[in-house]
Design brief:
3-stranded antiparallel sheet; 4-stranded antiparallel sheet; 18% helix; 178 residues
């Protein structure tokens, strides 16, 4: 008896499913109404002349990209812009030519490059400078003392550039006195 009840319930559910399917498929002559989403009213943009602006289109086509020299995929600062000679500067207003390379010791006579290291996750090298009791830690491309940009941290020396003039120099690795 129990199995007969289950078969009867199953048959009833099948009949209900067929009726719902028949009614939803539209075979009963019912037509579907579009949803409210499809009833959105189209409003054109408030443009006076919707025609193409051929002069602007041609200007954008003939424009060429000129790079500023900066690598878009690098976090390091771009190199300073090179001075171009457009106007001849009178000789009396020019500063005297720089003959000596830049030196970190001009900022402090006790400045010394005493080591380098790397972080375990594979980032760039870090250099260590000391000025008495003060220690500076920085990486390649960083600005040091607001005046110098570190170019390369080598095994035996530190290459840097003076930002204002673009002059470059190197500082050797020195042992700290005990």
């Amino acid at each position: 008896m129990k199995q007969r009840k289950q078969l009867a319930v199953l048959g009833g559910l099948l009949v209900i499913a067929l009726v719902v399917w028949y009614w939803r498929s539209g075979a009963a002559g019912m037509t579907h109404q579009p949803s409210s989403v499809g009833k959105a009213v189209y409003t054109p943009l408030g443009v006076e002349n919707p025609g193409l602006h051929r002069d602007k289109l041609e200007a954008s086509r003939t424009t060429t990209y000129k790079s500023g020299g900066r690598d878009l995929f690098s976090e390091s600062a771009p190199p300073p812009p090179l001075a171009t000679k457009t106007d001849p500067v009178p000789r009396q207003n020019q500063p005297p030519p720089l003959t000596q390379p830049p030196s970190l010791r001009t900022m402090s006579p006790h400045m010394m490059f005493f080591g380098y290291g790397t972080v375990l996750n594979g980032t760039a090298r870090r250099a260590f400078l000391t000025d008495g009791d003060q220690v500076f830690v920085f990486g390649e491309g960083d600005t040091l003392l607001g005046r110098y940009r570190v170019l390369k941290i080598g095994n035996a020396n530190l290459d840097f550039e003076e930002i204002s003039t673009g002059r470059r120099n190197s500082m050797p690795l020195q042992e700290q006195p005990s």
